[in-house]
Amino acid sequence: MRSLIWFRNDLRVDDNPALSNCCVISEEVIAVYFLTESQWEQHNDSKAKKSFWLRSLVCLEKELQKLNIPLLIIETENYDSIYASLLKLMQQYDCKSLYFNNEYPVNELKRDRYIYKSFKEIGFGVFNYHDQVIHPPGSLKTKAGGNFSVYSPFKRKWFEELTEEQLALFDIPSPKNKVNIESSDVEKISKKFASKIDDLWPVGEEYIKSKVTDFLSTKGHLYKDDRNFPAIDGCSKISPYLNSGIVSPKWCILEAKKYNQNLLDEGDRGIVHWVSEILWREFYRHIIYNFPKVSMNRPFLDYTENLEWSKNIEHLQRWKDGKTGIPIVDAGIREMLNTGWMHNRLRMIVAMFLSKNLLIDWREGEKFFMEHLIDGDIASNNGGWQWSASTGTDAAPYFRIMNPETQSIKFDPQGEYIKKWIPELSQCPISEIHMPVDPLKYGYYQPIVDLKKSRQAAIEAFGNLRKD
Ligand SMILES: Cc1cc2nc3c(=O)[nH]c(=O)nc-3n(C[C@H](O)[C@H](O)[C@H](O)COP(=O)(O)OP(=O)(O)OC[C@H]3O[C@@H](n4cnc5c(N)ncnc54)[C@H](O)[C@@H]3O)c2cc1C
């Protein structure tokens, strides 16, 4: 029997349930990936991320070749047009079944449910799997039978319900029978998408696995302390690889276990904390699945819809350009503009600054992050933004606003991170690096807002909202 495997954000051969199951059942397998540029535009996917996907597909094609599976890259308009393209492929190549791993944002769910139902009606086999999470979204319930909207009880339940079986890896399949179909010229297609930061983000399953192992063995035990200091290379930087599925979260969790005496929720405090961050990622996947409104541009807390956001275009532009005059905020934005990635502490600081001190709608920031991050991910990005803006699940209370200057003093005490990204301040003494007395003297900027007054204004704006 011949089957079709549809790759999406699961660009790997190891621990890939759809690929593995497809190969067990089928003698011959063909792989497909849809290049949907206008859909990507609609989702604000960054140039760096698109290039990362295409470069990863070059690696995937080589791995699939070893399994005698050709990879076809099909350019199609958007998600709506995928159905017709898939159907054509199934008929043209006489495939009996379709395999894929699940995605949870609302457009992807709609697309997959339609294809699932229609293909079943036609008589095809359709098989889908959860590879981005350990517990399928919707499967973990509160005592009252509802869905979790707070992380800590979610995490407790995650561990309570965990079985050994759920952590079993899917091996790389054995080679299939050869088929007389040529793979697309992935290398050539990939070149069209090249971005200027490609060198910063090498691709490949082996590359990222050795990076994770190296991180866990040398820095894992320090993670809980170092992860908040952006001048320290203290976190794993695996987010782009996890989000594109170059490595599975399950593989990462099992690797963490190896470096923590086979334990997950106790033992080495650094590694335990790292695992709990991977569970935050899973938590936000459950959130977008269980509360689809959050991936439809709506806040989790409905009443915050009534907040009167500032329409100050100049403030927004200065924030986007990394020219707000608040050094730590500008450093964070500039790190993202230059590398496609931003340290988590900075993501929180710049997001709170935009949504609280500037009182600008968090959706502006969410979109801007997606346009520039190589790890831009609908679930985690939305979760992070709604947390920072106090509009989301388990969000920061609106009156607990991070002061960027205090954050800077605490987490970048020597101003190393600031100096790295703001060369204008290279001669500024440490005593005033967090808020220069005369910024213009360095060719830097006056702060666009007063931190105390803008904080107070945000507290009042949120405090005045009616909750009914
Ligand atoms: C406003 C805002 C926007 C964000 N946008 C994104 C995004 O688009 N894509 C994205 O992957 N993460 C996002 N995050 C979460 C977090 O900042 C990144 O996952 C993390 O910085 C990635 O770096 P790392 O791989 O070194 O993480 P590590 O600290 O090494 O953590 C390991 C992994 O755990 C997961 N993780 C860590 N922190 C979080 C978190 N707070 N929420 C969800 N998962 C987490 C990530 O998959 C990460 O790769 C956002 C956070 C905020 C506050």
Structure report:
This protein has 468 residues and is α/β, with parallel strands linked by helices. The chain folds into 3 domains: 2-129, Rossmann fold (3-Layer(aba) Sandwich), CATH 3.40.50; 132-168 and 205-290, Serine Threonine Protein Phosphatase 5, Tetratricopeptide repeat (Alpha Horseshoe), CATH 1.25.40.80; 302-462, DNA Cyclobutane Dipyrimidine Photolyase, subunit A, domain 3 (Orthogonal Bundle), CATH 1.10.579.10. Helices cover 48% and strands 6% of the residues. It contains 20 helices and 5 strands. The chain has a 5-stranded parallel beta sheet, with helices on both faces. Helix 4 runs parallel beside helix 5 (106-122), helix 11 (249-258) runs antiparallel to helix 12 (269-290) and helix 16 packs antiparallel against helix 17. The radius of gyration is 23 Å and the shape is globular. The mean pLDDT is 97. Bound molecules: flavin-adenine dinucleotide. Flavin-adenine dinucleotide is lined by residues 227, 235-239, 242-243, 274, 277-278, 280-281, 284, 344, 347-348, 351, 369, 373, 375-377, 380-381, 383-385, 388. Residues 227, 235-239, 242-243, 274, 277-278, 280-281, 284, 344, 347-348, 351, 369, 373, 375-377, 380-381, 383-385, 388 line the site of flavin-adenine dinucleotide.
